[in-house]
Structures are given as structure tokens and as C-alpha cells.
């Protein structure tokens, strides 16, 4: 039969059709090979790796936050509504807002929710890596006072990864507020989604210092420009943003300079975001970010220098990171 075909058609039958079948088969396998429980665990493990790299405590699993994350991931696998749940007929509907969903499973303290949704499945590790290049999500995931979390991964019409974080200290205060004794302080917080005042004899301990990222090794060199809301709406793909956030300090932080250095010298094309010029008004006055306009080089060391003034004195924070190697020759 092949002898009756033209040379062009024989090439199609003998080469291109088998190649197409191989590509389709590989694509199908890549979408069906994921185990939801495994991907959820690997995603949380990956987040803890980045937190350790940033000098922070790791997150232990909270059964309540795990349950809330699982319910929302299942909801998102049918309706890609992001942090909101609008479709009450969805069998996995568990609350309109992240806090409502946490409260519904018995988690009383404030929480932070971060997630990814897509038409194609992505591993838990890659989901977290993507979130860590998204400025606003990263800052929430690296909150130093968080010490417990729940993560979930689900695939249906859409693929979703959800991680919810909270503070065990806040949870305990909400669950069992002090009932007696001298009260010198009043802590105003959210318990069960409601503004709550808790009287305390002493303030609970808080992290004091700066959280810097990226720091260490195996850093993604780029930000894909798809975070919602987008901190860089006038640009597409950029370099992975550099961020520094100060915690546990009520003093004003006045930025003097924010610089990024490659082995060849300072990177000149950057944009610095602060609370004053953040287009989405998401940044706190103690949070600062530098976006390299161009994607960073693979497998390259970088140095960061942040100079600031606090209480009339000048200070400098410096740190280093190295971007990861290419995963394959087509990556650029």
C-alpha cells in the first residue's frame, strides 16, 4: 500500500504520524500521572524549602486548614473562581471567601490563601515555584508568624493547587482567650471572621527582622507577568522580583537605594515598587520590591543591596542568590 503513495505521503505516514502519536501520548501521560495527595504534600514541602532558605520556620500540617484547602481545590476543579466561590450549586462549595471557608471547618484565626488554577495539570512543586515568583503571593507565603498550613491539589475540568496558612499562636488565642488576671494590653484581631479584642497581660512574641527573597540557590530567573492583580501591568515577562519585608517593627523604614548586581555589574534596567507607587496598593509601607525588566540569566549568581534609614540611622541589607540551570535546551 505504501508503494502507491507519493514520497511526501510516505514521509507523513512513516515519520510524522508516529511522531504526532508519540507527542499526544506524552502529553496525555503528563496530565494523568499526578497523584493528588502526593502533589499536595510535595507542594507544601517545596514551600517549606523556600521558607527555610529565607531563614524562616517551616509550616506544620493543620488538619483544619488541610480540610479547607481540599474543599476549595475540589471546588476550583469545577469552577475557576479564584479566591471566591460564587457557584453555590457546586457540590464542593464551602464558603464565599477564604476566611469563611476556614471558619466553616473550625479554624478560628486569620488565614492566608494562595492558589494556582490552570487548564493543564502542574505539579505541586512547580505550582509553588510559580507562586514564589508572583510578588504578592510570595509575601503572603513567607509571612514569618505563620507556622501551620494545609495544602491540596485537584484535577477536573481545571487543575488547582491551594495552600492555606495560619498562626498557631493566633489560633490558640482565638480558641482560648485569657479569662482572668491582670490585663495590660488589648490585642485586636479576627476570630471566626469577626473583629475581636483579646485582653493580655503581655503581648505575644513576634518575628522581628527582614524577610528577603529570592535568596540561596535554584532560583527561577523570571516572572511570567500573570499574577492577579499584576504588579507590573505595563510589562509582560520580567525577571523574578526581589523583595524585602520588615516585620515586628513599628518604626518607619525609609528606602535609600535598592540595587541588583550581576557578575558583570549593576543591573540598570529595574523598577522599584513601594507602598507609594504599587499600582494595586497591595504593598505595606515596610515592603519593597525590585523588578529586573529583563529576565535574569540561568545558572548565574546575583547580589542584592538594600539601603535604608530607620530612627535616623542608615542601615544596609545585602544577600545573594543563584538562578537555577535550564531544565531543557528549549527553555529560554
Automatic annotation (TrEMBL):
> Locate the SCP domain: which residues?
44-161
- State the residue spans of region: Disordered: 81-100
Name the source's superkingdom. Answer: Bacteria
Signal peptide annotation = none
**Polar residues composition-biased segments:** 90-100
Q: Which InterPro entries match?
A: CAP_dom, CAP_sf
This chain's protein is named Cysteine-rich secretory protein family protein
Amino acid at each position: 500500500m505504501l508503494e502507491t503513495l507519493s514520497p511526501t505521503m510516505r514521509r507523513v505516514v512513516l515519520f510524522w504520524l508516529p511522531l504526532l502519536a508519540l507527542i499526544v501520548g506524552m502529553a496525555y501521560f503528563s496530565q494523568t500521572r499526578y497523584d493528588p495527595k502526593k502533589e499536595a504534600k510535595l507542594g507544601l514541602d517545596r514551600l517549606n524549602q523556600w521558607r527555610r532558605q529565607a531563614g524562616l520556620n517551616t509550616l506544620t500540617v493543620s488538619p483544619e486548614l488541610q480540610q479547607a484547602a481540599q474543599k476549595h481545590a475540589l471546588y476550583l476543579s469545577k469552577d475557576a473562581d479564584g479566591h471566591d466561590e460564587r457557584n453555590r450549586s457546586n457540590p464542593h462549595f464551602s464558603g464565599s471567601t477564604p476566611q469563611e471557608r476556614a471558619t466553616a471547618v473550625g479554624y478560628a484565626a486569620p488565614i492566608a490563601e494562595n492558589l494556582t488554577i490552570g487548564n493543564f495539570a502542574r505539579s505541586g512543586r512547580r505550582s509553588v515555584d510559580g507562586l514564589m515568583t508572583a510578588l504578592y503571593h510570595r509575601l503572603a507565603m513567607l509571612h514569618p508568624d505563620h507556622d501551620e498550613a494545609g495544602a491540596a491539589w485537584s484535577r477536573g475540568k481545571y487543575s488547582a493547587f491551594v495552600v492555606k496558612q495560619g498562626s498557631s499562636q493566633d489560633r490558640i488565642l482565638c480558641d482560648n482567650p485569657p479569662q482572668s488576671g491582670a490585663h495590660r494590653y488589648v490585642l485586636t484581631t479576627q476570630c471566626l471572621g469577626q473583629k475581636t479584642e483579646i485582653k493580655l497581660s503581655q503581648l505575644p512574641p513576634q518575628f522581628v527582622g527582614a524577610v528577603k527573597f529570592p535568596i540561596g540557590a535554584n532560583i527561577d530567573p523570571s516572572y511570567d507577568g500573570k499574577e492577579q492583580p499584576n504588579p507590573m501591568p505595563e510589562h509582560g515577562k520580567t525577571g523574578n522580583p526581589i523583595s524585602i519585608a520588615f516585620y515586628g517593627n513599628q518604626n518607619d523604614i525609609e528606602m535609600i537605594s535598592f540595587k541588583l548586581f550581576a557578575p558583570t555589574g549593576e543591573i540598570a534596567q529595574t523598577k522599584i515598587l513601594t507602598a507609594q507607587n504599587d499600582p494595586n496598593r497591595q504593598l505595606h509601607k515596610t515592603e519593597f520590591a525590585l523588578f529586573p525588566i529583563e529576565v535574569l540569566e540561568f545558572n548565574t549568581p546575583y547580589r542584592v543591596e538594600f539601603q535604608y534609614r530607620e530612627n535616623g540611622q542608615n542601615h544596609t541589607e545585602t544577600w545573594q542568590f543563584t538562578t537555577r540551570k535550564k531544565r531543557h535546551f528549549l527553555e529560554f
